[in-house]
Design goal:
The chain has 210 residues and is mainly alpha-helical. It has one domain. Helix content is 66%, strand content 0%. Helix 3 runs parallel beside helix 5. This is Yip1 domain-containing protein. It is found in: Membrane.
Length: 210
C-alpha cells in the first residue's frame, strides 16, 4: 500500500555517528539493512544521508578542479563543470542549492515515478517514503563518484544501482528480476545521469575503441 505516514516508527537513528553507521551497514549487509532500517514515513534520515553523499561528491569534484588548476592533480578524462569552475562564494551557494533543492526534488520525483512503475506488479508494496529511503541509502557508494577516474565512477554507480534494485525487491516484496525491470529507469536517472555513470561508461568505451 502506498501512503504517507505522519508519525514514523522504527527507522534510522539521527546524528553524524548514525550516518557513518548507516554507510557502513548498507555496504556490508545491504539486504539486512533494507529489511530492518527502512520504516514507513521515516524519510528525514535518508534525505540527510543522500545530501551528505552528494556533499562529499561535489566537494571532491571542486577539490579536483582546484588542485588541477595548481598543477597538482589531473582531472582525468572528465571535464568538471558543476561547481568546479566557480569562485568559493558562488560554489557554496550552488552547493547549498544542490543539497537543499535539487537533490530532494530529484529523489521525490524519481520515487513518484518508481511508485507508478510498481503499481502493476507489487500489490504488497511499501509506501512512497520507503522508496525514497531505498533510493537515498543506495547512493552510499557514490561518495567516491567525484574522483577523476572513469573506472571508479563506473564501479560506484553500478554498485549504487545494484543496491537500489536489491532494496526495491526487499522493501516492496517483489522478485529480483521484477525489481530489475521496474527499477531500471529510476536507477538510470539517479546513477546513470545524476551521478554521471553513463558519462563514465562512454569514456571507458571510447578508451577501448567502442
Amino acid at each position: 500500500m502506498t501512503q504517507w505516514v505522519e508519525n514514523p516508527t522504527g527507522g534510522r537513528d539521527r546524528g553524524p555517528a548514525a550516518l557513518v553507521r548507516a554507510w557502513v551497514e548498507i555496504l556490508r549487509r545491504p539486504r539486512r539493512f533494507f529489511r530492518t532500517g527502512v520504516a514507513p514515513g521515516d524519510q528525514a534520515p535518508g534525505l540527510v544521508f543522500a545530501a551528505t553523499v552528494v556533499l562529499f561528491e561535489e566537494v571532491s569534484r571542486y577539490a579536483v578542479v582546484k588542485l588541477a588548476q595548481r598543477g597538482l592533480l589531473s582531472t582525468g578524462p572528465f571535464d568538471y563543470p558543476a561547481i568546479g569552475g566557480f569562485s568559493p562564494g558562488v560554489a557554496v551557494l550552488a552547493l547549498f542549492a544542490i543539497l537543499v533543492f535539487v537533490t530532494p526534488a530529484t529523489v521525490h520525483l524519481t520515487a513518484a515515478l518508481q511508485t507508478l512503475l510498481l503499481l502493476p506488479v507489487a500489490s504488497d508494496r511499501g509506501g512512497v517514503s520507503e522508496t525514497v529511503q531505498v533510493m537515498c541509502y543506495a547512493m552510499a557508494p557514490c561518495l567516491l563518484a567525484g574522483l577523476p577516474s572513469a573506472e571508479v565512477r563506473v564501479l560506484v554507480t553500478a554498485w549504487g544501482a545494484g543496491l537500489y534494485l536489491l532494496g526495491t525487491a526487499v522493501v516492496h516484496n517483489i522478485r529480483h528480476p521484477v525489481a530489475a525491470i521496474v527499477g531500471a529507469v529510476p536507477a538510470a536517472i539517479i546513477f546513470g545521469y545524476g551521478f554521471r555513470g553513463f558519462q563514465a561508461v562512454s569514456v571507458l568505451a571510447a578508451d577501448y575503441g567502442f
